[in-house]
Amino acid sequence: MKSFLTFIICFLLLTGCNRTKEKEEKQKVNDKPKITILGVFHFAGTSDFSSVQFESLESEKRQIEIKDIVKKLKEFRPTKIMLEYPSVDSKYLDSLYNETLNDNRDFTINEIEQLGFRLAKELNHNRVYSIDYKLDLPFDELIEFAENNDKRRYENMIASIKAQDKKESDFLAKNSMLDYLIYRNSDKEDIRNKDQYLNQTAKFVNDSNYIGAKFVSKWWERNIYMMTNIDRWITPDDRVLVIVGAAHRAVIKDFYEDRTDIEYVEITNYLKK
Questions:
Q1: Between 11 and 217, whose confidence is greater?
Q2: pTM of the predicted structure, to 2 decimals
């Protein structure tokens, strides 16, 4: 009988210790800062090699759609909003946001203000964060090499990019901006974005010139710098929303999904609500 009671007591103590340990482990996970990344197109157009064509976002229809997106982003309850704007010029962006916060200017037509400023203002944030890092990509070198050494592959790649741009432009013309962002922030699109670099651009090489690999490594390098700029502002209890171009999202998302110090949250969970 005594042995049985001893067994029961030891069992209960061990179970209690295990539950305490599980609770502590769960608490550690909950204490991690959270980050989510919204991949967008450039609302004001862009000089980027690839771009989406669309009608003015100043229309009543598109403005209603933008406000609907902001409403859904608000459900994430971000404590900090970080934007694709050069970190070296952060003081200028801060001044623009302060003017907007004080109702001294309207939102201009770009994703930084239409989504970032608008959401930050509704949440009464006293600032936004600039996290971009400009790094020149060797476009001219790549084009020169491709035209002289692998012209057919280059022409096929350009045709593929233009076809994708048209597909996205047509989709946006026929659907809401919310539907478009759900589509652009899907796993399938993230993979396609990375495949463009890893499976196409990186292959422009020969025995003496690795320009394709150089180009792709520079793109990943820029995104690592952007990740570092994000990290500079994260504190333990933060819920961070990053708004960047979709091609940046595809890469930076991987960085955070693979890290143990921060919890990545998928933005489409909120866009689809």
A1: 217
A2: 0.86
